[in-house]
Specification:
Order of helices and strands: HHHHHH
Radius of gyration: 33 Å
Shape: globular
Number of strands: 0
Structural class: mainly alpha
Strand content: under 5%
Helix content: 55-70%
Number of helices: 6
Amino acid sequence: MTSTQLLDARTPEPTSISPAEGRAARRTRLARKRSLAARYLGYVGYFVGAGLISGAVVHHPLDPDRYTRIAAYGAFVFLAATILNEFILTRERPGLPRMLVVIGASLTLSFGIGMLSGGLQHFDDFPARGAVLVPAGLLVSFIAYVIKDADTPTRRIFSLVGLAVLATAALAFFGLREVAASMENTPGGGHSHGTAEEPAAGPSRPSSSSSPTSPASTT
């Protein structure tokens, strides 16, 4: 290249960012910030919902009306987290039939997890009830998870993994039932949740430590 060509060559002007592209970049950064908060809420919602359900399932016989409401609140929180994670934050949104299946399976999964965790946590307080909740929660949560998972065919419920879950649930039922039967004969243990009443203290009677002295005989 000659010197004349070098002089005539123009320096390329820097590409300027249009206002529309700048606004798009700002929207992308804002969406990422919102996505972080939404992912956090969806993650926490799973645990809060399952925790409410677990306590309600175990303590339901103590106050059915109260713990039915708590279970409904937990199911609502778990379902809201499912909708947020599975339908709003995802890139590929499923159709209406798949959406209904996921919602139903998620509700079933929440109660299965609640039965399993609540039965384990409060087994010392309600041994007979916990012996049923733990294996039942294991089976219910596994079946609901397989139905909910889009990458797992439903027939995997009857696979070797499903057979292992069934065997584990059966062993847990018979084993925990024996433990519960032995605990019923052992006094004490656990917290009463306000069900046990302390014996009312009656009026105390002063005990006479000294026997009445007979008057001394005079001679």
